[in-house]
């Protein structure tokens, strides 16, 4: 469900013009609630809360919804330069560099993407909670999606559960991957012998990775990947299990002779806008170490 009509933001309020049929209904409250749920696509949980808190109001022919309230950011802000790939009143997409965590894990002095996003919100005058919708491994680069209000968070979380947010990756792996490898459908579970690792396990959670071979080099390959599921270390585990660990991924058997981190980058993120329903396609350029690695591997073939 999505809203295609005109709208505007006025501070903490979203203003819509539902039209005469809703405005002049004999039971305007019921008609309004039905319209918000079935036409506009407001999450039912948010609708109930706003109704309870008197956050749904009429002002002449305009319907006002209090969906941009001031909220504690919820995390200390730390200023660093960041690359904004997309931003509006509902969503933010940020490039995460390799080596950075998404959120704190308790280590003193750490700087995470959430800390930097908090500083970005403060600099923009946005008093909104920091809510990332999905995660990337510490040493994977690529785009990360954030929700800027509860409407966006509820709808984007549901889209994640329904596997409607597309994440496309590029990776350099050891060995020459055969073109016949197009889908890896192997369950993933914890490795009881190593706390940080995951492994293919018949009792693990379902995990599906789509693979397309792009280039082959002397002893490695460039592949593109798409996920149906988002298990911890999914790409790394699947490829290592098949004998093609990521270059630089020493945790799963990859060589670090060409690159000092796992050679994995999220190059595209696609999702439906949580309010308008518009298809949003975000491309994230390869970082320099991945570009340099490709040049190096191509040169070795010559």
From TrEMBL:
<dbReference type="GO" id="GO:0009982">
    <property type="term" value="F:pseudouridine synthase activity"/>
</dbReference>
<dbReference type="InterPro" id="IPR020103">
    <property type="entry name" value="PsdUridine_synth_cat_dom_sf"/>
</dbReference>
<feature type="active site">
    <location>
        <position position="137"/>
    </location>
</feature>
<dbReference type="InterPro" id="IPR006225">
    <property type="entry name" value="PsdUridine_synth_RluC/D"/>
</dbReference>
<comment type="similarity">
    <text>Belongs to the pseudouridine synthase RluA family.</text>
</comment>
<dbReference type="GO" id="GO:0140098">
    <property type="term" value="F:catalytic activity, acting on RNA"/>
</dbReference>
<protein>
    <recommendedName>
        <fullName>Pseudouridine synthase</fullName>
        <ecNumber>5.4.99.-</ecNumber>
    </recommendedName>
</protein>
<dbReference type="GO" id="GO:0003723">
    <property type="term" value="F:RNA binding"/>
</dbReference>
<dbReference type="InterPro" id="IPR050188">
    <property type="entry name" value="RluA_PseudoU_synthase"/>
</dbReference>
<comment type="function">
    <text>Responsible for synthesis of pseudouridine from uracil.</text>
</comment>
<dbReference type="GO" id="GO:0000455">
    <property type="term" value="P:enzyme-directed rRNA pseudouridine synthesis"/>
</dbReference>
<dbReference type="InterPro" id="IPR006145">
    <property type="entry name" value="PsdUridine_synth_RsuA/RluA"/>
</dbReference>
<dbReference type="Pfam" id="PF00849">
    <property type="entry name" value="PseudoU_synth_2"/>
</dbReference>
<feature type="domain" description="Pseudouridine synthase RsuA/RluA-like">
    <location>
        <begin position="92"/>
        <end position="241"/>
    </location>
</feature>
<keyword id="KW-0413">Isomerase</keyword>
